[in-house]
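REQUEST ID: PR-0412
SUBMITTED BY: lab tech R.K.
PRIORITY: routine
TASK: structure prediction, single protein chain
INPUT:
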Amino acid sequence: MANSLRSLRDAKIKIARGTVFLVGGKDGRNEDRALIDRFARICRGKQARVLVITSATDTPDIHRKEYSDAFRKVGVRDVVIFHGEEPAAADDPKLLSSLDRVDGVYFSGGSQRKLMSAMGGARFGERLRERHRRGLHVGGTSAGASAMSLVMITQGEGRKPIQSSSVELAAGFGLLPKIIVDQHFQKRERLGRLIAAVVHNPSMVGFGLDEGTAVEIDSSGRATVLGRGALTIIDGSRLFASSSNGSKGGHPLAFSGMGLHVLTEGWSYDLRSRSVTPPRPRKSAAGRTR
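STATUS: complete
OUTPUT:
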């Protein structure tokens, strides 16, 4: 982890023109497909060309059919599904060719460790980041969302006391250099492990996404919430004291100054100013706000 994280950190961070679309799991591909439809619209709607990568899953045949059907049912006809499980998969010429021609890439759920083992190779990762900087839209659900981070959560127990051993970290794709993403957040009670990740990386922001919930991060750094659940944000920028350096693995972490926000559909968060904006009041039929 250390060497790969260091190389990404040392690279000059450029403003990306593409959108990042994160889903906390249960993306509705077999149900209402509202989140899939939103990602398709970001990628030019019915004219979109989408590459779906299923390398995180243990059931690639099922995911191939589900995502092919889901994108076609929201009007996208040009859908390529790629599945690779070995590190050499990241150098597949057909994959790299597809990556160069599509408008959007979507990563399925499964295991982020498995995904990065197969797809974290230099050629694919560098090409993905470069294309994203030029305007490629990148989305992912569950493990596919977590893998967007520079510092990626690989596993950890959210239900235990907040301690150093609550979370394990590794290098992700690095599309989100300042955000640590966790998913299935409320369902699997992962608050503790996300807090632990931010305590150890206080310059970063933790995004905990509920199932059926997405956050759309545009090129200006504005993150807008969609879906039925919430986005929990852990902000370590004002953390002024913690025991992260001296705390042993089995002992609770002490910290002070951590920021917390819980946002639902329509709320947004500005990553540059680290400020929250509520949705605009809706007008009733009589023209009154409510």
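NOTES: The domain at 2-267 is CATH 3.40.50.880 (Rossmann fold).
REVIEWED BY: pending
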